[in-house]
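Lab notebook, bench 4. The sequencing result for the construct came back, and we need a structural model before the next group meeting so we can plan mutations. Quick request posted to the team channel:

Model the 3D structure of this chain.
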Amino acid sequence: MPTPILSEVKIAVFGHSSANPAGIAHLFGALVVSSTETECDLAIFTVNPADGIDQKTIDDWEALNDRLVPRLVLVTELDESESDFDDAVMLANRVFDKTVTPFLVLHNNDGTACALISMQDLSIIDYSVTPPQVIESDPDHKILVSEFQKEYLEEIEMMGENAFEAGLLFPAIPIWPDREIGVDIVRKYISRLAH
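Done. Here's the predicted structure in token form:
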């Protein structure tokens, strides 16, 4: 159920999911506005790695640069693509601005995404249980993501803690709405922009 705080945030949706902004609004409980001409508090750019990023979406991103609108890049449809989250982030970095990855995807033995690991503190959000549980990562995970964590923390330190709200830092988040993976993280970012 949407919270009153999130419903105060006006979101514009761009990319392959922009044809269904109501679905995005329902997912995150925020008020969706439809275009760059409309004042928004947050722009969400959805990226399907299999489809790439079209020129109109790139133009929409650039149109928001002068206004320093906070932006999130949501990487979707990962199960239906040969590409993965890293591929989508590299693409976004090439055609948008440099993004940061506050979370990376962890998979279970059959290759299905089941958890996200935080680059802030290396905790794991395990979505294979309901409700999702935050657990400590094991030493193997810490070693596996150590370089990614170092890069993320350096970027946050350089840009500052409020760089996202200032429209200067662009988090890329992997989401699987049907399994609620990443949805809670996006809601937390939206809540940072509530008036």
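Helices lie at 4-7, 21-28, 55-65, 85-95, 139-159, 183-191.
Will bring this to the meeting.
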